[in-house]
Amino acid sequence: xxxxxxxxxxxxxxxxxxxxxxxxxxxxxxxxxxxxxxxxxxxxxxxxxxxxxxxxxxxxxxxxxxxxxxxxxxxxxxxxxxxxxxxxxxxxxxxxxxxxxxxxxxxxxxxxxxxxxxxxxxxxxxxxxxxxxxxxxxxxxxxxxxxxxxxxxxxxxxxxxxxxxxxxxxxxxxxxxxxxxxxxxxxxxxxxxxxxxxxxxxxxxxxxxxxxxxxxxxxxxxxxxxxxxxxxxxxxxxxxxxxxxxxxxxxxxxxxxxxxxxxxxxxxxxxxxxxxxxxxxxxxxxxxxxxxxxxxxxx
Length: 299
Hints:
By secondary structure, the protein is mainly α. The protein has helices at about 10-15, 20-25, 35-45, 50-60, 75-90, 100-125, 130-135, 155-160, 165-215, 230-240, 245-255, 260-270, 275-285, 290-299.
């Protein structure tokens, strides 16, 4: 989506026809033939950076890490993702009921509707209700970091189903898989990062309220440690990591070699299944690993 005709939304929709349907689900009208992201965003009254990443996700292009957009885009985006996947699920009638591809898509739909989206809605409500967040009885026990927006099961299932289908059904499966990949990119590159940022703010708000309680009631915030299989050194690495230190700085703080820190980080990812810094931050805060550091840094 950089220049010339590649920047025209009509040309983008030729590359990924499902883009026009996604616009409709997002509550937008179809673009004019010569509309660019900039002119279309202005005519529709939407944030340009948000729309740029939305389109780039569908086309499989890398999103700019400089892009910033307001969190109020999340609710229409959640509705769009839910309805888009609902539409994909409705297109699998040509597959046998015991097909691995059909099963995988139905399971993905259940995870999105019963786990991911209810949690995302709660995060959204907590994010915009600081007073409620401070008074809630427990923190967030789930993170959208745990949601796999690109299950490997679909690649294997595609190869398994393809030879047994007619030519017309093979064409339908190819189109379905193309649109499913666009949906996965939309969730993985846009919706998940947005909610992760909000999760972190919600948990920090919750943690500040716990800090205030601790000051008045002398509660020991480090009375218990979660049993997640992390070693003491891995926990220490996690604390420094989410506080923004580089690998080299962590090595200096822990008085170990740089390769040791890299090894600890690799073990953290393997044991927790969390790769992003936002996800690790949410995990560290919800599991009590940052109590002491936050008390120090916020005083």
